[in-house]
Design brief:
Blueprint (H helix, E strand, L loop, with lengths): L5 E3 L24 E8 L5 E5 L9 E6 L2 E2 L11 E3 L6 E8 L19 E4 L2 E8 L6 E4 L14 E2 L3 E3 L3 E8 L13 E5 L2 E5 L1
Parallel strand pairs: 5-6
Antiparallel strand pairs: 1-2, 2-13, 3-12, 3-15, 4-11, 4-14, 6-7, 7-9, 8-9, 10-13
Length: 199
């Protein structure tokens, strides 16, 4: 049986959600921005429980980093994005790769100016701006719940999620960098590892 629990753009669960977008004007309008996604499946004959202790442990939705951290002697492909091992608030994209794209044995000194580049063995990294952090995101099951939500905290969804139900997940995004309509957001929503069961 295919795993069917997904994020959706709409309560009818017709349009799958593939990314989060920040909708904040560079002048600060719309900051913080709010959006809603729906978690669920159109199949009403299935349900989900936490894999760790089914029916007892809570299922959480948590904002986490989507980009990785630099690592030594690692093969990198073009356009891979990473952060420094000691976070300097910037993200870096592989804009040049030669040979197998192997990073060096030692972490490079990261440029702190946007568009600055550094060569890391077989990879050229470019500073592509400040990265988002989980602490910029509040989650709630209702729009009104965002007022008391704590930024960066996981959202409790209960111990069982039933198929055929669209669970709303309200998201409030505060973008301190005022990057307008950022299409390359580096945060994702992650659900506790769950097991799918037939009802």
């Amino acid at each position: 049986m295919a795993f069917e629990l997904k994020f959706w753009e709409d309560a009818g669960m017709l349009i799958e959600s593939t990314q989060l977008n920040v909708q904040v004007g560079v002048d600060g309008t719309g900051n913080p921005a709010q959006a809603v996604r729906y978690l669920g499946s159109n199949t009403s004959t299935i349900l989900w429980r936490a894999k760790s202790n089914p029916g007892v442990d809570t299922i959480y939705c948590t904002p986490t980093y989507k980009i990785g951290v630099w690592a030594a002697s690692t093969v990198i492909t073009l356009n891979t994005e990473i952060m420094a091992t000691v976070d300097n608030t910037y993200k870096y994209r592989a804009v040049g790769v030669v040979g197998t794209g192997l990073t060096g044995a030692s972490e490079p000194t990261w440029p702190l100016a946007e568009t600055g580049q550094v060569v890391d063995n077989e990879v050229t990294w470019e500073n592509v701006g400040l990265h988002h952090t989980p602490s910029e995101f509040k989650l709630a099951t209702t729009q009104g719940g965002l007022a008391s939500a704590v930024a960066g905290d996981p959202l409790s969804l209960g111990v069982v999620l039933n198929g055929g139900t669209a669970y709303p997940i309200w998201i409030e995004i505060y973008d301190p960098n005022l990057e307008e309509n950022d299409p390359d957001i580096d945060i994702q929503l992650v659900i506790t590892e769950v097991q799918q069961e037939n009802v």
